[in-house]
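Appendix B. Raw example, untouched.
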Amino acid sequence: MSAPVVATRPVGTSRKRVSKIANAADTLAGFGHGTEVDVLTFGQFSIIDAIEAVLDITGPASVTLATWTAAEFDLSQIEAQLLRARITDLRLIIDRSFVSRQPRFVGLIHDRFGADSVRSTRTHAKFVVIHNVEWSVVIRTSMNLNHNPRLEYMQVVDDTDLASMYLAVADALFKEEPPGLENRRNVPELVGVAGVEPSVPVRMGKTPRVGYAPRMGGPK
């Protein structure tokens, strides 16, 4: 059995920051090769702003982006980057609910990026890999593409091994799922990506039942 796809790094090597009002570029100031920045923000910028800030450092690069949702303005920013050739290749992974939540954007994504550059599946993962011959940047975040003024976190690192792990997952998902935005109901199997084996064998039981929402204000 092949080893699971994992990546590890020394503890305590990142730069820790709380960014309350700064933009993405100022928040990531000083980021470079072999460095990592851990940031808490107040949601004053979105992940697309962070991508732009990283591209200012790396230059034109391939981008693999997994997100849960997006807004029209943020998609327009990606289109502008494509026109400027800063994103040389784009792969977009989004949740299946995107199709039902924002159906008018489905055609927009197909028109702008092409059906083959998009996959939809059951996912809540949010990560970005920005890579070229000189850089392997990974962004892990709670942010979606859209502006969301609330506490968010973001970790940005230049790490070849970590980038390879996320790209392996994206490669498997792109092979497994059909192109375009289909309302897929299954969790991706990620065939070819070895997983961590449990120390004690387990068997999945019945799906837990959803209970009633608690009453507000205590019992009557």
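End of appendix B.
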